[in-house]
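Worked problem 6 (solution included).
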Amino acid sequence: LSNSSPELRLSQIGESREHFVGPELDRYLESDSLRANVSYGNCCEESSEPSLDDKRCESGEKLYSCSECGKTFCQSLLQHMISHSGEKPFSCSLCGQKLSSKVGLKYHMRIHTGDKPYSCFFCNKAFHCEKLLMEHIKIHTGETPYSCSVCGQGFSHKSAVTRHMKCHSEEKPYSCSVCTAAFKRKQDLMGHSKIHSEERPFVCSFCSAAFKRKMTLEEHLRIHTGEKPFSCSVCGQRFTYKSSLTHHMKDHTGEKPFGCSICKAAFKRKPDLMEHVKIHTEDRACSICNATFRYKRYLEPHVKSHAGNLPFSCSVCKAAFRRKRDLVKHKNSCT
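Solution. The predicted structure is:
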């Protein structure tokens, strides 16, 4: 294993993606090869030769133990101890933010420079540090090492569990200053607030469509690029959106989680259930002849037939009709 820069190590992983699909790719992601590629050496200190500490890290040897928390390290114990002291000796020259480590400062500076050298080999999304990339990859692999202690639902990120736990609480501390809407998370309030504004700062470079949120623009761009970052672990079919993959997986499982509370009908998607419920709840009977219709869109033109309403007229002979298709048929004979 060569000690190359983090960028090169990750690009080498990216070159391997065309050789693995489905279960083979899953096995590769769990292999020692991947773990070695993304964890060897110090990602922020480049060197042409591995140090003695690097060799000890590679062998799994841990030399130093923290007296505060018991964690062991093959290097950087003193740097770790700073996290317990609360000391932040490194300061950003651009914004003044203080950080506890030189490595942390280096990562922070990339926020100002926009440098994102670590790219996901599934979807090409870029990150300013290797740790964030590895956390992101869990989205594609389906790895969910963190679980909710209340309902058992699994998550790929620890922060996602923290956000999810709020759904078990009725507290909604973030309120909209314009309307009465309230939210459990601050970011949900910020996203909601944009509906009260006409500003759409995120513009598509392909078709000029504008969006209020950057994430919505990123999803939209996949329409133009053809990117399909989400793949089915069963059949390998790829999808543009995660929601499409979730829906597709139900084809394999036969799962129909959305059941009608009135009859025994069940559906794979919530929109299909909502459309079905209208059969039971909406008034689709004609008040004049009691004829019934499954959909409201069929009832409306029927009612017009009783009222003598003839909204579609021929521009040639002035003949009028109740339905547009009758007018189209008439025009073929009139001209």
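Discussion: The mean pLDDT is 75.
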